[in-house]
Write a structure and sequence with these properties.
79% of the residues lie in helices and 0% in strands. By secondary structure, it is mainly alpha-helical. The chain is elongated, with a radius of gyration of 21 Å.
Length: 188
């Protein structure tokens, strides 16, 4: 509606306040997010020594975004600076679940002679409990932030809590399938 206003000559509208401040902060935060993703990828590459495996584990990051967005919607918090910080934190946390799952699947395939499909299924079953427990503990740990109603800490807690819970479920179901699809030509 503001864009449709007929303003007299010499009068203009500029946005300031929180809008202007948030734009100034989001650009450095976006660089921080990109930097953290690159560093996480390089660490995974050093650990697994194969781009395909590192990329597979990195695929857990987008799985958390749906949960983060859903949580903000359900709890009715805006996507602000602290929610963005939660997304950055979530990127590192959910990768851990992917490492737990895929590392075990690789071990079953390479050291125990399981086929890719068998390794994916067995890893999903065997690593379900540690992934569930670590994710649930972290998600429950931020519930007081959500319940506080604080406009500062509420969005951060919401992003981490809902992002972890949804990504945990998706990681346990989607990642073994992706592992099977990405490595099926190398199966035993």
């Amino acid at each position: 509606m503001i864009d449709e206003l007929q303003l007299p000559e010499g009068i203009s509208i500029e946005y300031g306040g929180e809008y202007e401040g948030s734009l100034e902060n989001y650009i450095p935060m976006a660089y921080s997010l990109i930097t953290s993703i690159v560093i996480i990828f390089l660490i995974l590459l050093l650990q697994f020594k194969e781009i395909k495996k590192a990329v597979l584990i990195m695929m857990t990051m987008p799985l958390s975004l749906f949960g983060a967005a859903l949580g903000l919607y359900l709890v009715d918090y805006p996507f602000g600076m602290t929610a963005f910080l939660g997304v950055i934190s979530l990127a590192g946390i959910v990768v851990r679940n992917g490492i737990i799952l895929i590392d075990y699947a690789i071990e079953l395939n390479e050291k125990k002679g399981f086929s890719i499909t068998e390794a994916a299924k067995a890893a999903g079953k065997r690593r379900m409990r540690p992934i569930f427990l670590t994710s649930a503990a972290a998600a429950i740990g931020v519930v007081p932030m959500i319940l506080s109603g604080s406009p500062l800490w509420g969005p951060l807690g919401t992003v981490i809590c809902f992002g972890l819970i949804i990504s945990m479920v998706l990681t346990l179901y989607v990642l073994p399938v992706l592992y099977g699809l990405m490595f099926r030509e190398n199966s035993n």
